[in-house]
Amino acid sequence: MNHPRPASGPALILALLLPSLALLSACKSPSSEEVKKSMEVVGLESKWVSREYRTWPRPKLVLVPAITFRVKNLTSAPLTFVNFNALFRESDATKFNGDCYLAAIRDKGVPPGELSDLITMASNLGVEGTTLASIRDNKLWKTWAVKLFAQTKGSNPVPLGEWLVSRTIDFKEDAPPAPKDGKK
Asked: Which of 75, 47, 90, 97 is nearest to 152 (CA)?
């Protein structure tokens, strides 16, 4: 009775490696061009928001630049697993002052031709003062810029654009307490 012999040597190695090679080629990271062509930044708005605010024991207000935007899927497949990195800097500076990393689009994804949910990113650094007026009137408060990058499925970070941050402030201080004697 003849029994088939199990594969050995080079045949066994080849049999084990072929499925792995097929899997590796299927997991290829998208190129920078592919990432850039897969999405479009839509409706980007910028403003300054509060990172920290307190009136007691010592007043402190920290405002940071922030952006909001949506991404349009320009491909025929769902856009999934997209991370964004926003680098913030004073517009005349060569080094970045702050950043924000966000894993924004996950496995649910954005259907072909559709827009993502609103994405908000705020810098970890900004400007500090004691009141809104102390920041608004400070001659050292400069215009900032933001550079936005996208990364997906193991790709390198790909620049999507650079914008100036508006000087709009989306913050209101607490109203001072009313005098106890009822006078204004």
From this structure: 75
